[in-house]
Design brief:
The chain is built from three helices and eight strands; from the N terminus they run αβαβαββββββ. The protein is of the alpha+beta class.
């Protein structure tokens, strides 16, 4: 005798419009939470990687300044400056010093696309009016670094790493300060040390005086937070 078993299959109904809307809302909430977090993580990772590079830039700059100090009067007279102007270490007589800094970082100019977009460092000024010691005159207190045109600016300022432009107002890390009746325009305010800047790399297409705070998106300030949107 054959027994025929009948199995009842419940028909599966499609999602209702309300259920679909609920699912979409849940997915939107998840995306709203995870995407910013993921984006923030990616940006943080990029910053950490670039901060490591800037550390190499700091060490290389200090190494070359120590070499210049060791040479004393044997160094070219134009290598150092006390007039407060930016010293060009990327072309001309002093290019060899900038090249040494980049070579220590394994970022030689001869390697296409390998030279940093912006790279500037600063030591204490040798202007006698500032009254700084020789140690202060050859110590690197400041580095400004931009890896490429799509990278944010990172600043090393006397042991601190920041991403905002360091000269905005009188409360900024770098501002004007008067010593012995003379006002120094760019002074490390935490130590009252007037700075002398050395330009190792400037691939912005702007002049060595304009690339700092020019309105162009290529400038150093434009690559600084909160202006930089990359």
């Amino acid at each position: 005798m054959c027994v025929i078993l009948k199995t009842k299959h419940k028909s599966r109904q499609a999602f209702t419009l309300v259920e679909l809307i609920v699912v979409l809302v849940v997915l939107a909430i998840i995306a709203a939470i995870t995407i910013p977090a993921l984006t923030g993580y990616i940006k943080k990772t990029k910053k950490e990687k670039q901060t490591e590079t800037v550390h190499y830039a700091l060490v290389a700059s200090q190494a070359v300044m120590t070499e210049v100090y060791g040479l004393g009067s044997a160094a070219d007279s134009a290598t150092l400056s006390s007039d407060g102007n930016n010293v060009n270490w990327r072309t001309g007589t002093n290019k060899k010093w900038g090249d040494k800094v980049l070579d220590l970082m394994d970022r030689g100019r001869g390697q296409a696309g390998n030279e940093p977009y912006i790279f500037v460092f600063a030591v204490g000024t040798s202007d006698p009016a500032a009254g700084l010691t020789l140690t202060q005159q050859y110590t690197v207190y400041y580095v400004a670094y931009v890896e490429n045109e799509n990278s944010p600016a990172i600043f090393y300022i006397n042991g601190e790493w920041i991403y905002t432009y360091p000269r905005i107002d009188k409360n900024s890390p770098i501002w004007d300060y008067t010593i012995g009746g003379k006002t120094f325009r760019n002074t490390l305010m935490s130590e009252h040390i007037p700075l002398q800047f050395y330009i190792v790399s400037n691939r912005t297409g702007l002049s060595d005086t304009a690339f700092w705070r020019d309105s162009s998106p290529k400038s150093l300030q434009s690559h600084s937070e909160p202006n930089f949107k990359g």
